[in-house]
Each structure stands twice: as structure tokens, then as C-alpha cells.
Amino acid sequence: MNEPHEIRALAAADISEYLASVDDFAFEREVYHVAHSLRFEAEHAALYTDPVTEKPRQFDVRASYTAGTDKIALAIECKGLSRDFPLLLSCVPRTGPEAYHQILIADDVMGPGQSFTRIRTVPSKEYYSPYAPNRGVGKSMRQVRREVKGLKAGQMVSGEDIFDKWMQALASLSEMIDSGARQLRAGKKLVHQIAFLPILVVSDGTIWVADYSSRGELQREPFEVDSIEYYLARKYPLAREGVSLTITHLHIMTRTKIRSFLEEIALGGSIWQGLFGG
User: Fold this and answer.
1) 140-167 pLDDT tens trace
2) Tens of pLDDT along 213-271?
3) Backbone angles phi, psi at 263, to 5 degrees
4) How far apart are CA 216 and CA 134, in angstroms?
5) Which of 29, 63, 108, 245 has the fewest Cβ atoms within 10 angstroms?
């Protein structure tokens, strides 16, 4: 018979161990401060209403950057992972129909007796898509580890712990898209186009890729990356406009990579051309 587990009060050392190994708060604040230092409009850890469950939830970071009349809005969720329980993405070549994105755009059109602002979505048939065909894109995502206890000790096992975290980025994005549509609808000639990107940031050294052919054949040994896209095709309806905005990809990147990604946006890098054309 097993002895009952002794329950004791936690000490400062226990709390410090938790903060160093499990807690994501410092991770979120780091991403927030990087964005803020690069002059993004940034928010950290505020409540919003989940559009599906209608329950209050808390996002990690929201950040947006405006250049001229174009705006990029990011819904960022952070998750500390360990190298012994990393994220594995199974990827296949992106097909032609998957190689697109959509943005919200406002333009002035003539109505009965006056002009008004129209909100519409623009697919990559009008703009260059940054998601090129035939490049690997994630279609399956899970954490993997080697079991150390029980009957499965020594075996490789998988888990879905990451699912709720990246779904939070998509839920947070819903409110951001509604807010962006209101901004465009208000006019004022400030912002005409908005691109929305959901982002999952994880610890360095915790993203692995299994690269498959379109026929499901593993092409090479799994390898580590600092960023990868995961295919979504998630539709966000805009009832007032009678259209839906499709967010085609989730961006997954490491703690180090998010800094250079934000810097590229702030410095006017190629991502602006990729999202809005020129």
C-alpha cells in the first residue's frame, strides 16, 4: 500500500522554481516590451469575450503597426515549452488554392445621391500572397515526449496541450477584426487596409518539422526550425458587410524569432509588400 503523499506549504524556493520553469508571464511581458519599444500599439493581458463560448477570456498580447494607410494587426499568444516536450508539425507542400490570404480594405463608392465607405475582403488574386505554393505548411500539430513512468516508460507519446493556447489567438483575433472593420467603416482617411495575423510564440529550440510529400511520404529526417506556418482557412463573418474574412495561416515562431519578425514590420520590410502589394 502506498504511503499518502505529504502535503506541505510552498516556500519561496518552490514559487521561484515555478516562475522559472512554468509561468508564462515574463514571456508575455518580454514580447509586449519588444513590440512597445518598436513603437507598436500594444496591449498585454486584458479581457475580451470569446465569440464562440461568449465567456470572458484573457489574451496575452495584441500589437498593431500602421504605415501610411496600411495596418498590420497581430494576435499573439505565448507558451513556454521544454525541449523534452517540443512541438512537432507535420507539413506537406502548400497547394495553389491554399496559397492566399485576405485583408480588409475600405474604399469610397457612390450610392444613391452620395458616396459611402465600402468594406470588402481582398484575396491574393489582387495582391501578392506571402504564402507561396509548394512550400511546406503545417497540417498537424502536437507536442511529443518520451514517457518516463508507467507501462509506457521509454516510449514516444504525444499530447494536445498546445491546442487551447493557439485557439486563443484565433478567438482574440475575432474581436480585433470587428474593431478593425469599425475603424475602416468610420472612414477619416487614416487607414484603408488592415491585415490580421494570429501568432503563437514558443520557447527557442521547441519547433520540429516532419516534412512529407503530397502523397504522405516522409522526405527526410525531422528538423528544427525557428518559424513555420500552419494552415487554417478560418472564416470570420462580418455581418454588416455580408462578407467573411478568411485567415489562412497561423504563424508559429520562437521567442527569438518574434523579435526579428516585429523588427521587420517596424522597419518596413518585405512583409508589407507581401501583404499589401505595391
Assistant:
1) 999 988 876 766 666 656 676 688 889 9
2) 999 999 999 999 999 999 999 999 988 888 899 999 999 999 999 999 999 999 998 89
3) -65, -40
4) 14
5) 108
| Distance in angstroms between the alpha carbons of the first and the last residue of the chain | 72
Q: Which amino acid is at 215?
A: R
DSSP-assigned states of every residue in 27-73 = HHHHHHHHHHHTT-EEEES-EEE-TTT--EEE-SEEEEEEETTEEEE
> Exposure string (b/e) for 73-92, b if CB count within 10 Å is 16 or more?
bbbbbbbbbeeebbbbbbbb
Mean pLDDT score, 120-129:
67
Q: Which three cell numbers stand for residue 30?
A: 518580454
Length in residues, the chain: 278
CB atoms within 10 A of CB 269: 13
Grid coordinates belonging to 124 = 491574393
